[in-house]
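## retry 2 of 3
previous attempt timed out at serialization; input unchanged, resubmitting
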Amino acid sequence: MQTNTKQTQTSKVGAMASKINANKSVLVVGLGRFGAAVATTLDDMGQDVLAVDRDAQIVARWSAHLPVIQADMTDVAAIEQIDASQFDTAVVAIGDSVEASVIVTGNLLDAGIVDLWAKSVSREHARILQRIGARHIINAETDAGKRVGHLVSGDYLDYIEIDGPYTVVKIHTPSHAVGRSIEEAQVHDKYGVTVVGVKAPGKEFQYGFKELVMHRNDELIIMGKQDQIDRFLRG
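## retry succeeded, writing output
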């Protein structure tokens, strides 16, 4: 980590630390196209994000859009300097070096981050990441950064972006809707969201109809615009 960025880095990390209790804090390492998509999606969702890249030009490019610092996370000293253990979740989005990806993943696991997502570029790479303890392996060929960003946030069980402004997501029943039917909760009239179907634990999938009651651990498949879905989650 360069010494002339130390004061700025400390300030940004301090600001992050002060908000950890309010939201999930996420450390994103690597700002290629995939990592940048994850970081910006999380930031847009209001999560506490700190992005890290060792390339000064990439850091400068993103500094106006994200909390970002320059650091080489293969160096244990850098891990300690930014106090990586404070983060709830980490995403290792390094794709240009399998060696760097594995070393950074190991360093973050050693720092105590349990909820760790790591991008793989091959089956062999994925196997190594899995063996050293990465909880979530992201296949770069099939997982879009935006989708992963939504999943990492913890609000969604699954996320599918379709053409146009609409999104399909799988969520647990929000607390405000527990024990209420789709009609009683005014899911569509109040929030503009459509309940496509409901999967209760141990039961068959049911298509959404207005009399269907939503229970605490039910998985809801809902469709709507992103802001509508967010309002429904908040209640």
